[in-house]
Amino acid sequence: MSSVLSRCSHLTLRGLYLALACLFSSSPTFAAESLEAEIYMAQVHESEWAFKGSPALCELEHEIPQFGHARFQRLAGESLSFRIDTYQPIPEKIEGVLREVSPEWEHNDPDPLEQMVVIKSGQRPVALDRRPAGWLLSSLAKGQIGSFDLLDWNDSRKQVHIRLSPVKFQRPYREFKQCLKKQSGSGFEALRRTTVNFALDVHELDAEAQEILEDLADYIAADDRVSTVRISGHADDQGKPRYNLRLSAKRAKRVSEFLAGKGIELSRISTRHYGESRPKIRKRTEVARAANRRAEIELVRGK
Q: What superfamily does domain 188-301 belong to in CATH?
């Protein structure tokens, strides 16, 4: 035991929990005698990894039976991330350890590196940014189990292991890597303000406008932080103001209908129209008028 304590002494300043975690991971006999373990992990016959990809989002999803769903994601314009969404909320924040565990059929030793993680309260207790998410992804690619180890939030005499199985991981992982290579660089900052233009006295979308809106719809569907899609319709100064006001309303409505047809919920969409009152370019030239015949789409992320 003294040798175990010596190996764990560098963690004492982080508190009693870290020392205990080090003891338990370093001394299986001690851990088995002292703590009852509860393991959440897909068995070999039920382990599945699912790949989903688009220019806006690359995702790997895995169910952890009786616990929740794990997801690796990279949204266009952003870094790799990982999260776990649980079936039941975690009642309180607690610290844990992320480490590799070798399955019984794996002859290579696991990486000894351990990473401290914060298990948050609520139904998304685990959220990792690029570096730890990449480490975890690499562990699974090597055939190792990714394990989140923590003390039970209801009973500190028990230890909980939340584990990602590497079974049936390789094929979806290859698809995931191919998706990452092809992913568009147009992320939230590039798409948060998007404009489509219209021909004179027209509210229908041409091919170019439809292509722009299709890419935008893909992104909105992928980014669950986008809470509101604000659409404003505009017209140029040709014709009567009242007519132009109605025309700008039709343009905003047409964009709204197109996005809704691509699966964007109407509850997330708001429309306004301004006629000729808010020109983009305040000139009476053909170039200015073409720029003013438009609909502007603004993406708003919730807090």
A: OmpA-like domain (3.30.1330.60)
Q: 106: closest CA among 173, 150, 169, 48?
A: 169
Contacts 24+ apart (CB under 8 A), 134-140: 134/80, 135/98, 136/72, 136/82, 136/98, 136/164, 137/72, 137/80, 137/82, 137/173, 139/100, 139/110, 139/111, 140/164, 140/166, 140/169, 140/173
| Every domain range in the chain assigned CATH 3.30.1330.60 | 188-301
159 touches 36 (CB < 8 A) = yes
Architecture of the domain whose range is 35-182 = Sandwich (2.60)
Q: With b meaning 16 or more CB within 10 Å and e meaning fewer, what string describes 160-180?
A: bbbbbbbbbbeebbebbeebe
Where do the CATH 2.60.40.2540 domains begin and end in the chain? Answer: 35-182
The helix/strand/coil state of 251 is helix
pTM of the model: 0.78
Nearest to 192 by CA among 219, 232, 221, 224: 219
- Planar angle of CA 80, 83, 84, nearest 5 degrees: 160
What confidence tens digit (pLDDT) does each residue in 193-234 have?
999 999 999 999 999 999 999 999 999 999 989 999 999 999
